[in-house]
Fold these 2 entries.
Entry 1:
Amino acid sequence: MSKLTLKTEGDTHVIVTRHFAAPPEAVYRAHTDPKLIQRWLLGPEGWTMPVCINEARPGGKFRYEWTNGKGGGFHVTGEFVELEPYSRIVHVERMHLPDPTPDNHVETRFDSDGEGTLMTMRMTLPDAQTRAAMLATGMERGMEASYVRLEGMI
Amino acid sequence: MNAVFNLDITFSALADPTRRAILARLARGEATVLELAKPFEMTQPAISQHLKVLEDAGLVTTRVEGTRRPRRLARAGIDAMDQWIAMLRKALERNYDRLDEVLAGMENEKTGGKK
């Protein structure tokens, strides 16, 4: 059984939930400490994040740069709106492909759940079209590894 | 109805981000070329060309309603979108599986520090 849920809500929202076997403080730190972020927020196999700047304070900026080591890459920039250690992060982000995508407004909650944490990420896009484009782009990032897997299945 | 689901044609049709975005839009309901051209900021001929590729791949069908020709997702198109969403899930799952390991490592460091 998969622990991840991913669903759309209304015309402009995407909701992701995931359970972690660690307390909210640890999960929150793994989302705000650059040294920790660089170890997991990588997408498909083979991608790395050589630049990870994260000013985790209200009004602080962040910048994540990814590369596949073969000349491919893109980056995300954003600003923190609200931070409630260790339960809630509100930020705004956009992808640069290289033109910036419309702002994605993201609220991430870390709720204590037994011995672990239930993370709920609620993304709000400006309109349905932007959400469709974002999901399509996310699909593209997953393609490289997915094609290989599909070739094995067919 | 095309009974043969040609995977090569399907995947080359899906290799373009605009075509995937068109499918994602049609997943919310049918739309005419004009209705698709506006939000994508593309000309109608450009949209028509993408739609032709999607129709040839069996992912989209055209409905005739008087002078309107609304496009809608075909069954294969719905299946293809489900598959792409599953791929997106996989990329997210890989991230969070790695995060599980990072969190386990943090716990060990804390335990180790108390010794």
Entry 2:
Amino acid sequence: MAVQAKEHAPAAPGRRVPSAYGGSRERPAGGFELWSWLFMRISGLVLLVLAVGHVLIVHVLDEGVDRVNFGFVAARWGSPFWRTWDWALLVLALIHGINGLRVIVQDYVRWPGARLALNMAFYVIGFVLFVLGTVVVFTFDPNAWPAVG
Amino acid sequence: MAKRKSDVGTLYRGSPGQWSWLAHRITGIAVILFLFAHVVDTAVVGWGPEAYNKVVEVYHNWVVKLLELGLVAAVLYHAINGTKIMVFDFWPSTTRHMRSISLASTGLFLLAMLPITWIMGESILDSAGVI
């Protein structure tokens, strides 16, 4: 029983702040996990603007997704501002989301092999999507299809 | 340790925070899984108007729009609840007002969902051919 309890305890318990009861993760004591904890909060703050802004502009306001087509993307990405916005959103959301998945896998997947396999799958998906998204955001040229441009 | 009879079959009730903690995880998983698909469908724009317009047509279906409303709710909940978490984490003294801050953040989420549901709901009904 005692051994089992020890197994569950974190290797280096963090500072026990009352906020652990507010629905958040306890702040890790140090090392990679502390940086990860801090990154989730800082990127979250930036995503608050990037992701919520994106969702409201593209999916809710001004006819929402009904007006989204090739011409809409061409016009939007005509501005370096929106290209940068969308690229930053892509990168931060991927890292924030996949790091979140890593934390969840750590909590629920006990078998080390499955843990590694799941995390590796997420990292590979994340990397492939990062490359795909980056290439498309920065190389997209609507004039390659003059009929619509 | 032997379980008391009252422990069996009852729901764990630790703190109201447990529900926002669970909702934060579920909305987070939903959003990242959608993002995986969304990067791919947006990347099709690089294959020209014919291909992209065909893909984006999927989003104009009313059932998909219903899911889209869920997505917007998930993003908004995750954002507002995440802000609440940061308030508690960076200013621990605010946990004294945990109950009212939690109520305020939930209220803000529900309040924001009212006009959003109205606007997107109209679009959903329109696509479904109801109005």
